[in-house]
Amino acid sequence: MASVKSSNCDESLGNECAISISTITSPEVPRQGTIERAITKKQVKNGRAKISYYYSGTKGYFREYCESTTIHGFKYLSEKRSICERKRNAQYFALLCRYSQIYFYDSGKLSNDFNKIIDQMKLNLSEYTEECQVGENDPEPCENLFQPIILDEGICYTYNMLDRTAIFRDEVYRFKDYHKNENTVNWDIDSGYTFNDSTPDGSFLNYPNNAYLSGYENGLHIKFRQLASELDYFCSPNSQGFKVSLHAPHVIPQLEKQFFQVPFGDAIMAAVQPKMTKTSQQVRKYHPDKRECYFSNEKYLRYFKQYTSSNCRLECYTNYTAKICECVRFYMPKKSSTDICGMSHICHFTNRVQMQWNSVLKQKETQHTATNQNDTSFCDCRRSCVEINYEVQLSQYAWNYGYMPLARFRDKKKESYRYARLSIFFKEDFFLTLERNELYGPIDFLANFGGLLGLFTGFSLLSLAEIVYFLSVRICCNFRLHKFWTGPKN
């Protein structure tokens, strides 16, 4: 039989009141199966309670960590949202890492919330830079010089780049406050600077900003920093630091293809030597297949106002991705009606390899035939007739910021930072320009031909007059006098 021995409840505790129940049985020998079943049920009940207790405690501890951590994006994982929203935020957060490391095969196209999330993921430049200095001017915050831009590696910052209205066409979708520059542009790749505006002191207003002298003291100096606790070796397992790419102001850089690294604890000095290639107006009249280049306004691009080989390849990859995947990657130029692809990267990587292979095959097939402009697998991205490239000579040495003269007087909290320094300057005051010219024009051909004849046969202008005389005047006179073009028949 069973009876209640005690019931100690406090009504003020409500549902949390504990009830103690004692079971009294007769002194007879109990059945073994009944006791085992009772013990088993009790153990199962206690085990489930322990699992639930540890699970709720772990969940609450993880939520507390996410709300207080300084790692960007973790606070969105702890918000009380639905599973779909949490999965979507995890996809946005994964954009900061290398795409080859994480795969979400079942994810599709992103919604319009991507515009909001990417603003929240944007890194604060003041947290990752100490100061910037241009030439011998006073140091200033780097956010005064750099503007955010969306590239293939994520959200980056650019200096001295043209505004998006000068690069993209009007129908291209524009992210808010990205790739935006309010400075007045008085430069283009074909004609260079146009010195129209000037300041009250007589100096010219130039944008993009140009360096008037070469040397270390006339360059751009940047001090980078980052909290040591925020270093994530999962996103970049090989090295930690910053990627830098030098490019022309009207070109969209692609960091996956061309960059150099600025590691922590080192100072990098980059001596830049420009290489500019021009094309004469005499060559402009030739067909692009003969001169093997395009002028900036000669080949039409769907998304870009000016033609460059880099912009052409990016547009070609964009068109091919949109055709196969029915969406584009987040950094690609697009129209407002085009969807942004999710994290299913197999489609993108497969398309890139397939597009490059098709382009090689098409180049071999179309060497003697016309190019099909509607075929998006063939880019036909020739070199620009006028282009600027930069050769960089790097020097690297260890740089311990803690031993700097003023570092010891600053906040001691900065000891937890990792520092790096970058100095970019022109190597020489002048640089040589290459120019494409026609090797032999019509006049050059006649001059060289006449020179060879004069050298080997004594040919001259008098000899040319003799040839004209015998082929015209002499024949006419023979017809009039002798009724035969060679003269007397005898």
TrEMBL record:
Molecular-function GO terms, alphabetical: ligand-gated sodium channel activity
Transmembrane segments: 445-471
Similarity comment text for this entry: Belongs to the amiloride-sensitive sodium channel (TC 1.A.6) family.
InterPro entries for the chain: ENaC (IPR001873), ENaC_CS (IPR020903)
Pfam family, one: ASC
Annotated localization: Membrane
Chief localization: membrane
Protein's name according to its UniProt entry: Uncharacterized protein
